[in-house]
């Protein structure tokens, strides 16, 4: 039976009933007091829409182009880890769902299916999210494989020198169950979680293996070893946005990692206007964190984002309905965005500008 729901906010409770507790907590949770996690949602409530009427919205078009790739709507699938924890087909099913909805999947480095299998799952454009391993040979090999498999952009996640303190995972001693591993790192022998006496084994994995010494020089290095456009994910300030432009990024994602890294930051939507002002249209700016409604997409675009990424709802859709569930989540956002555009008097994405929003409180 098709996955039935009325909106994306319902999915978390539906998934809670199905997904084992430690896995549910890993997905739903944020760092420490989860202040950032809450602010991501609250930020959307602080903006109000200013609809225009009598605008002939009989023919509407949600399509847009992201780094040269045509997509059905300005909504992509954010990189998230370990999809096989919620569905046996893992990232392969997610790739099919995203392709069916005609949008871009950003495939995570730390997936439970190899990036080549994800690429072969469906004929659609996709980007590869990169974590830089201390072992640069391992990192170079990941990049080379992504290029060879036809990924269209590299998305460097810059906000994870160490893992944020996710207290739910500490309490649950989160680790990958037997039989699961980080498929892309199998060849390098880095696919398994370390043994820990207490706390999150995944946090130790990140501390032990990812490179916390990264600087903007490494962005230059990454550009030198890859022909792909580079997107930098995890930008929260105008200062870093300017550096991203200066170091040749093709795009940035304004993101606080869904509230999972540094706690007590602004909600990502509240960080967006400063970043957009600093970038001055030189590169594409995307936003993620708390996107659950078509009107959320509208607000992000009105504040200057070219597109948004959606994280947790995709995993809930996958858990509840596999590839079809992923597609249903994206279709729901598409329908809501289309309706919101009609009601706001914007027939196409180009018509979504700053005059559409006003600070509400
Ligand atoms: C379970 C989970 C795993 C994630 N894994 C990654 C990852 O591997 N790489 C990455 O750059 N971001 C990762 N993220 C962050 C997402 O890309 C994105 O920034 C965030 O989920 C957006 O917020 P939302 O979940 O409220 O839509 C993960 C997020 C979640 C919830």
Count of domain modules: 1
**What portion of the residues fall into strands of 2 or more residues?**
5-15%
Count the beta strands: 12
Given the helix and strand composition, which structural class is it?
Answer: alpha/beta
Distance between the termini: 43 Å
Succession of helices and strands: HHHEEEEHEHEHEHHHEHEHEHEHE
- Which ranges are low-confidence, i.e. pLDDT below 50, for 5 or more consecutive residues? none
Annotated CATH architecture: Alpha-Beta Barrel
As a percent range, the share of helical residues equals: 25-40%
Mean pLDDT: 98
The biggest sheet, with number of strands, parallel, antiparallel or mixed sense and barrel status, is: 8 strands, parallel
Strand order of the largest sheet: 4-11-10-9-8-7-6-5
> Which CATH class?
Alpha Beta
User: In terms of quaternary structure, what is this?
Assistant: single chain
- Looking at CATH, which topology would you report? TIM Barrel
In short:
This protein has 13 helices and twelve strands.
Write the layout of secondary structure elements.
Blueprint: H1 11-16, H2 21-28, H3 35-45, E1 47-49, E2 64-66, E3 69-71, E4 75-77, H4 90-100, E5 105-107, H5 115-120, E6 126-130, H6 136-148, E7 154-157, H7 167-172, H8 201-209, H9 216-225, E8 230-235, H10 238-246, E9 251-254, H11 268-279, E10 284-288, H12 294-302, E11 307-310, H13 312-344, E12 357-359
The site of flavin mononucleotide has 23 residues, from helix 13.
List keywords for this structure.
TIM Barrel; binds flavin mononucleotide; 361 residues; alpha/beta; two-stranded antiparallel sheet; 12 strands; 8-stranded parallel β-sheet
